[in-house]
Amino acid sequence: RGHLECIESLIDFEAKTEWKDKSGKTPRDLAVQFKKTEAVKLIDEMLRESEDEDVDEDGEAYNDGLTSTQRNRMKKKQMQALERRGMKEEEEEEQEEEEEE
User: Fold this and answer.
1) Cβ-contact 33, 45 below 8 angstroms
2) If you ran DSSP here, which 8-state letter would residue 24 be given?
3) Among 36, 68, 69, 70, which is 20 to 30 Å from 76 by CA?
4) d(Cα 29, Cα 74) in Å, to the nearest integer?
5) What is the pLDDT of residues 36-56, one digit of tens each?
């Protein structure tokens, strides 16, 4: 699983999945060559997600000036903020309950 986490991190940090080595192979090509099926699936999923994010609801391409990775990071930060806010609200509710007792 560790290698898959490395792949996720590299993609999160905008590693170029289309780059090729001296023999002309991409990271995905190498994963196929070495029969790393989970890595191939992960790379395919990440590439598919980045393609999907470049299209709006009507299927039209748009450009907001951000890369798909930057949009992913922004969404992740928003989700983390919502989670923290939710935890804070839960803590406040618990404190109110304790004060009522």
Assistant:
1) no
2) S
3) 36
4) 29
5) 999 998 888 877 766 555 555
